[in-house]
Automatic annotation (TrEMBL):
Residues annotated as domain Acyl-CoA oxidase/dehydrogenase middle: 137-230
SUPFAM superfamilies assigned to the protein according to its UniProt record, in alphabetical order: Acyl-CoA dehydrogenase C-terminal domain-like, Acyl-CoA dehydrogenase NM domain-like
Pfam families referenced in this protein's UniProt entry, alphabetically: Acyl-CoA_dh_1, Acyl-CoA_dh_M, Acyl-CoA_dh_N
Chain ranges of the Acyl-CoA dehydrogenase/oxidase N-terminal domain: 20-131
UniProt keyword Manganese, yes or no: no
Cofactors (names): FAD
UniProt keyword terms in alphabetical order: FAD, Flavoprotein, Oxidoreductase
Acyl-CoA dehydrogenase/oxidase C-terminal domain location: 247-389
Taxonomic placement: Bacteria, Bacillati, Actinomycetota, Actinomycetes, Kitasatosporales
Entry protein name: Acyl-CoA dehydrogenase family protein
Record organism: Streptomyces lichenis
Family note: Belongs to the acyl-CoA dehydrogenase family.
């Protein structure tokens, strides 16, 4: 009798919680991504360039329309958080950089406008963003403010009649070099509260310069932004944003997405390592037949299974409207830490071949470092959870 080999990294079958229709849809999406985008990924990463046409492919998938169906003409219904999580997994399996560019647009930029904008503002911007005719970016992090940007934001907004004047700088802004619409967060000089503004491409005083020399997510076009007396009309101020708490709500929603991204990177690293272990021959046999190699694979699979559990439950809570910022913070901190272990073990399994782009795992090993750090570092997320479980704030 032939032995059954378990090749699926979803070892406990979490995908079975999706409907048969959803699983079929995800299979079609995976095939599309493998056919249309996977061939572009390595060359784009090497050149640190974002290929033309990628956003067009996302439009073909109606990627944004699944989250904002009221602004899409495909007739699809809004998808569950669990389905969106598995979709996020498929995007990141193909290429984390492409997935980040999509997430900045659909999650951070569109999420800010959808959650913080008036109905008129949503109707003005979201249809073009759903169709990827206009690309969005999210300007929060600053050169001198990452983890402490909430209390130390230096970008300011000053109202002059029906116009706001923005001054300051932002850093690490994904899609920043080419975005048509950038959501800029700035502190109002009058009341010291953080407000959100949509700055349109070509606005005088607004400049973007690509950050060079990255070793992770190289395809993502991160930018340094400078705002020098940028004048924005009151109609471009997000009308339902009154404080940093509203900004944090956008981050809470996307933090769960980063947990799925961490899972996806771990999944892909494991897939590559398991396949390599069956093909690489040393001492006259595939290395997958050696105990130490099997130990590495099983440790990877254990981490992945635990990660599947936490992100699946977080998605279920989100669908029920019961998820909390602390749960999202724990998910992000836990999964990115486990991801870091998985990609290191995978690189170890490949030996010297693990440091060249040809075998795939080197790119994941590098990209994982960015995912580990953004959307709140592990340390900051542990402080959010720590406060929730002790009642004591350990923030400086």
């Amino acid at each position: 009798m032939a032995r059954h080999i378990h090749t699926d990294p979803d070892f406990f079958g979490f995908a079975a919680l999706l409907s048969e229709t959803e699983r079929a849809e995800l299979a079609d999406i995976r095939a599309f991504l493998e056919r249309e985008l996977a061939p572009l990924a390595d060359e784009a990463w090497k050149k640190a360039e974002f290929p033309d046409g990628v956003f067009g492919k996302f439009a073909e998938l109606d990627l944004a329309g699944r989250s904002y169906p009221e602004y899409s003409n495909t007739g699809k219904k809004r998808r569950s958080a669990l389905f969106q999580g598995f979709l996020n997994l498929e995007l990141n399996r193909v290429d984390p950089s492409f997935a980040v560019a999509a997430g900045v647009h659909t999650g951070l930029a569109m999420g800010s406008i959808n959650g913080g904008g008036s109905q008129e503002q949503r109707d003005r911007w979201l249809p073009d963003m759903v169709a990827f005719r206009k690309i969005g970016a999210f300007g929060l992090t600053e050169p001198e403010g990452g983890s402490d940007v909430a209390g130390g934001m230096r970008t300011t907004a000053r109202r002059e009649g029906d116009t706001w004047v923005l001054d300051g700088a932002k850093r690490w802004i994904g899609n920043g070099t080419f975005a048509d619409l950038v959501v800029i967060w700035a502190r109002d000089e009058a009341d010291d509260n953080v407000k959100g503004f949509v700055v349109e491409k070509g606005t005088p005083g607004f400049t973007a310069e690509k950050i060079e020399g990255k070793i992770a997510l190289r395809t993502v076009q991160n930018a340094d932004l400078v705002l020098d007396g940028v004048r924005v009309p009151e109609e471009n101020r997000l009308q339902r944003i009154d404080s940093f708490r509203d900004t944090a709500e956008v981050l809470r929603a996307t933090r769960g997405g980063v947990a799925w991204q961490a899972l996806a990177i771990a999944v892909r690293a494991y897939e590559l390592a398991r396949q390599y272990a069956t093909e690489r021959v040393q001492f006259g046999r595939p290395i997958g037949g050696f105990q130490l190699v099997q130990d590495l694979l099983v440790k990877m699979l254990g981490n992945i299974t635990a990660m599947f559990g936490i992100v699946t439950r977080l998605a279920q809570l989100s669908d029920a409207g019961q998820d909390t910022p602390e749960q999202a913070a724990l998910a992000k901190a836990f999964t990115t830490t486990r991801m870091r272990e998985v990609v290191a073990w995978a690189r170890e399994l490949f030996g010297g071949n693990g440091i060249v782009l040809e075998y795939g795992v080197a790119k994941l090993f590098a990209d994982a470092e960015a995912v580990y750090s953004f959307e709140g570092s592990r340390e900051m997320n542990t402080l959010i959870v720590g406060k929730a479980i002790t009642g004591q704030s350990a923030f400086v």
